[in-house]
Amino acid sequence: xxxxxxxxxxxxxxxxxxxxxxxxxxxxxxxxxxxxxxxxxxxxxxxxxxxxxxxxxxxxxxxxxxxxxxxxxxxxxxxxxxxxxxxxxxxxxxxxxxxxxxxxxxxxxxxxxxxxxxxxxxxxxxxxxxxxxxxxxxxxxxxx
Length: 144
Known about the structure:
3 helices
């Protein structure tokens, strides 16, 4: 009988030992990643050919490419030679109506074949997206 009590006591001890409250979760607050330092941005005047490249790539990213009308387009260049381009474009949306001036941002580069290409990095749409794009433009020394 003592052996049964001892076994029951050990089982009860093990079960009760697992019933303690878990430690409260630690709070994790991620910090924004640091942006790589860039010594300076300066205005960059887009040659006509580069402006056409930018417009072609932006137009290709729209729902109705044939309806695109461009507003201001501005650029900056870093000390490392990175050309950032920001601008405004208006085009028709899925419903056939014009969406209004929408900001865009991207990088102008030369590919391995020696051709100028433009990568659209961001395009406005919602208020939050437009705010983000405009903020990135300002961060790159471009006021749109």
